Amino acid sequence: MPHELRAQLERLEELFTVPTDLLKRITAHFQSELTKGLSVEGGSIPMVPSWCMSFPTGHETGVFLAIDMGGTNLRVCEITLPEAKGEFEIVQSKYRMPEELKTGTGEELWAYIGDCLKSFIEEQHPGEMLEKLPLGFTFSYPATQEYINHGVLQRWTKGFDIKGVEGTDVIPPFEAALEERGLPIKPTALINDTVGTLIASAYTNDQVRIGCIFGTGCNAAYMERCGSIPKLAHLNLDPDLPMAINCEWGAFDNERVILPRTPYDVIIDKDSPRPGQQTFEKMVAGLYLGELFRLVLLDLHENPDAELFKGQDVGRLRKAYSLDSSVISAIEEDTTDDLAEVAAFFTTTLNLTASPAELELARRLAELISTRSARLSACGVAAICNKMEWKTCAVGADGSLFGMHPYFRTRLAQALREIFGWGVGDVPDPVMVRAAEDGSGVGAALIAALTLKRVEEGITVGVRNPESIYRGTKDEERDERVE
To answer: Which ranges carry the Hexokinase N-terminal domain (predicted)?
Structure first.
């Protein structure tokens, strides 16, 4: 590699490498911020009580609808929970979220979701007269919840910027869209995909204590004790009651105290719809990894000390967010001596011809960016374990980075070993991160089932208008329980 490129690569390695001592310091600060988020004063990490107040037993039954509003697709599912413990059946359809919808109006958003639900029902149950179906709504954006069937959007993430929705309860306009279309559907639980991941994973593995998403966005959920949530003290809940907490940890270190941001992270934040917010997410989430890669390559092209792709037209490389995290994965998967697949990517996608040295630099850059993502992500997992004093537990993880990147999970595991100081003999690792069950589908259905169950048992705390979500109960019995 020419001296100029070697010098630039060494600079990038210094910028993106997170050594063990820094991992430990980030973890300690992360833990204190998790605790602060549960306090009355609060902090950058919202630590949202989800009002999901139990783990599944494995014996939940019924038919439920679930929708998952993600950053790219809207997924509609019908889930059947049979008598067999831990089993489920699922039928689903995906609908692409139109890009124009992400900056449109709230009315357009709810109308689109209502139309997709109607299409799904007509496709799966043609000509049938359906009774009211309970629905779990996976709404993977920061929302304040005073009830499990209620949620006030705090702020859009994942590239959404729909006016007039932030600061409002998302359930009433969604219900109105359902009613306009004559759909026999009742939103029973509004959940975050991370809480769904926690519950779905615990449904099949009772050692699971944390649910994580490492994908377009990043987040975690775990089960806290109500007595350790000072901001709920005014409700006088039993301190031993469990409460699933949606951390919304993408907002960690918005104060810029400890995370090792690079000049490229600063650019991403400055040009984002919400500068100064979601600092952690912008450094680790899949939505931003391809953009980091693009910004570095463009900077090296324009740097007279590097002159990457010298004399070539980099017009395609100038388009913001034209590369996503799948590019990072594909580049790292190329283990050929001549990096032929990386070369083909530059030719076909960016119309650039890369020299062997430029190919090697590009591959190492992809590795640096994704490794930093995995290592910083481990800090959040470790912080929850330390806070709860868990020496061993299972973690259910979902998302495109965890599922599709060839090395993300091994790098995450290695970072956890460094943070906790596990020795070579600690096999298997005391904290195991494994692929999750379908949190946004099965998890949403399970939480709807758990909500119905506790309401039918007369436990209505955290449920708005509990009488409206009863099923299979005579009116007089229902009225008596509600009273």
So the answer is: 9-203
